[in-house]
# Entry
Amino acid sequence: MTKADEIILDLKQQGHKITEVRTELVKILLESDTPLTIIDLIKKLERKKLKPNKTTVYREVEFLRDLEVIEEVDFGEGKKRYEISNQHHHHVVCVNCKTIKDVSMDKDIDSYSKRIIEKTGFKSIGHTLEFFGLCPVCQ
Amino acid sequence: MTKADEIILDLKQQGHKITEVRTELVKILLESDTPLTIIDLIKKLERKKLKPNKTTVYREVEFLRDLEVIEEVDFGEGKKRYEISNQHHHHVVCVNCKTIKDVSMDKDIDSYSKRIIEKTGFKSIGHTLEFFGLCPVCQ
DNA sequence: TTCGATGCAAAGGATTTGCAGATGC
DNA sequence: GCATCTGCAAATCCTTTGCATCGAA
# Structure
């Protein structure tokens, strides 16, 4: 059983309907090594002969995000990107060619969170951390 | 000489024109303890009896950002916020009441940057780091 | 059958652009 | 006077909403 099958089965067992767009979106996001925009997703669906309305895709990513199957990331581009909820990680984005690589380094960030809780009195803290620079090719 | 005067004088010496909107925007951003949206800025200008067009404000923040007088921050709200370029820092945002507090912790992030450079081959790395949680009042 | 998924059109909000006119220096 | 700032209208881009219909289970 593939990871995609697992996720879809899980959704089904939670009582959600399984549609072709839903299934393919999960597969596309599993196969992508970079967070995708709504437009990216639509283009990839079209290559699979699916032509859902843009609204449907917006609603579908909202659905998958609410169930924590995928995560929303924002690099300050004025649009959102989506990726499968893997082990929590961050990204390095090339400011020139927009290449995105994953980076993980959470233990340390967690220790920050604790310090922030102490200092500010905030609770149940999440965070976003993104790095920007020039990739080896663009330097 | 106030900080605002310093900034304005500096702009003038760089050969830029000084307008009332420009001057007041710098003052407003210096006085704010939280990053402001375009709409926030317009409202604050109106309290000072200035009614610039929204486009003007967009162009003005672009101007000030390009000169690194102010910085753009993005909390994934679908709109940008602006704050005076102070010592580099981060924010804790209350997901409920949207209260924003500053946090600084850069030495550690810098050590991350170094690790990222080593691991990924990226260069001249900047970053964004924002924390989200519930402020003491909203808990 | 039923509830959720879908399409379509329209609206909403943030941001950008083109161009003519006004203004700082 | 000239470069730049400004206003206004329009356009663009991303996202959301309302409503009628369709389809998975």
